[in-house]
């Protein structure tokens, strides 16, 4: 039987994948439309945003989807993907917060995705405690 914490993480990761795709779709329409970008966005800002978009769509959404499926199926690769996603959330949001604090502005992405940070910190620990369910053994006991 799948632990409730694992089910919750799978649901949140599914939602995170969907939210990421919707968010970047809206950004794409807003700032990469044929019209000129919004005021205050220079070429460097646009290229940074583009880099985040490509990496999020290529890596984050794939890992979120794979983790959700693997967690539901109680597969070790799902557990690994979920742990990778958790670290990715912590890393990405640290970059975003540093950028926003330095530029004295809070981006919409920082607000929208901030709840994933405490959730990810909790999920790392919750998944570690449930690792045996995924067939991951503690080698110290061998």
Briefly characterize the structure.
The chain is mostly helical and 142 residues long. The protein has helices spanning 4-31, 43-72, 76-103, 108-113, 116-129.
Structure notes:
This protein is an all-alpha fold. The protein has one domain (4-134). The chain has five helices and no strands. The chain has helices at residues 4-31, 43-72, 76-103, 108-113, 116-129. The longest helix has 30 residues, at 43-72. It is elongated and about 55 Å long. The two termini are 26 Å apart.
Question: Secondary structure elements and their pairing?
Answer:
Layout: H1 4-31, H2 43-72, H3 76-103, H4 108-113, H5 116-129
The total of beta strands comes to: 0
What order do the SSEs take from the amino end to the carboxyl end, as H and E? HHHHH
Mean pLDDT value: 90
**Helix count, DSSP H or I runs of 4 or more residues:** 5
Distance between the first and last residues' Cα: 26 Å
Judged by helices, strands and strand pairing, the structural class is mainly alpha
What form results from the Cα inertia axes? elongated
Estimate what percentage of residues fall within beta strands: under 5%
Helix fraction bin: over 70%
Radius of gyration equals: 17 Å
Oligomeric form: single chain
């Amino acid at each position: 039987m799948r632990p409730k914490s694992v089910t919750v993480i799978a649901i949140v990761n599914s939602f995170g994948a969907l939210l990421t795709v919707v968010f970047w779709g809206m950004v794409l329409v807003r700032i990469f439309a044929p019209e000129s970008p919004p005021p205050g966005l220079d070429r460097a800002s646009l290229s940074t945003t583009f880099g985040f978009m490509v990496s999020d769509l290529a890596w984050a959404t794939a890992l979120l989807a794979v983790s959700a499926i693997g967690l539901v199926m109680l597969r070790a690769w799902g557990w690994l993907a979920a742990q990778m996603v958790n670290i990715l959330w912590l890393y990405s949001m640290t970059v975003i917060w540093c950028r926003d604090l330095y530029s004295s502005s809070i981006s919409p992405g920082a607000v929208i995705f901030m709840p994933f940070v405490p959730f990810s910190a909790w999920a790392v620990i919750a998944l570690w405690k449930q690792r045996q369910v995924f067939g991951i053994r503690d080698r110290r006991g061998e």
